[in-house]
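Worked Example 4.2. Consider the chain below.
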Amino acid sequence: MTGQTRTARSMLSRGLSILNCFRPGETELALSELARRADLPKPTAHRLIAELVDEGMLERGDRGLRLGLGLFTLGTRVPRQRMLSELAQPHLKRTHDLTRQSVFLFLPDGLDPVMADGVHGGRGTSPAAGAPAEYEAATSAAALLLRAHRPRLAPSGSGRAERRAPRRATREPSSQELARIAERGFAIGRSGTGTGAIAVPVLDASGTLIAALAAAGAAERTHPVRTAAHLRAAGMVLSRALQTASGLVPVP
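Applying the procedure from the previous section yields the following structure tokens:
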């Protein structure tokens, strides 16, 4: 029985590794690329993909596989993510109006930031529809922020992302750099195309980091302290709104 449990858990882990292969902005991936990223033999990947398609977690497209409607439907049932996205929208739009930059909401998956919502180009859009350089810079800033606030991450999510193979090579920051980020309260990320981003934490009543807000745009037009102040103000209002919606007393 123990051996069967280990085998079932292993197959579940392999199936999830296939779903985790998709990166922001990627619509379809070939089976061979999914197998390579998930580090699976092609026959195993083919079998698991067929099951995921049957369950609606994946769909077959013109050039490969894409995430399925069943996965989206399942994601919309996550109470905190849905609540955060709904509550964050007006604050994302207002922060965009103030900074004239794209603004994003990230949720922590261990030390991996997962983009949950965003406002790009002056209008609310799906995060997959914007400039890859902005997402890259914003994700970089949010990842640094999560590492700097590691002690404040919710225990239920800590460690999971560290056990998973990284989606792209990332430079691990030094302890001194992380200490500076924690002290000043924001992280700076950059892409290779002259795009910069600032990320700040969103904390709940107990001081646990539950999300991150990031703004991204042309690096030469980004004022770190001013942008961080706008994001921090939005984060505080969002935190209070979440506490109220959850039936908790907001922190004064």
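Residues 2-74 form a domain with the Arc Repressor Mutant, subunit A fold (CATH 1.10.10.10). Confidence is low (pLDDT under 50) at residues 1-9, 122-130, 156-169, 247-252. Compare this with Example 4.1 before moving on.
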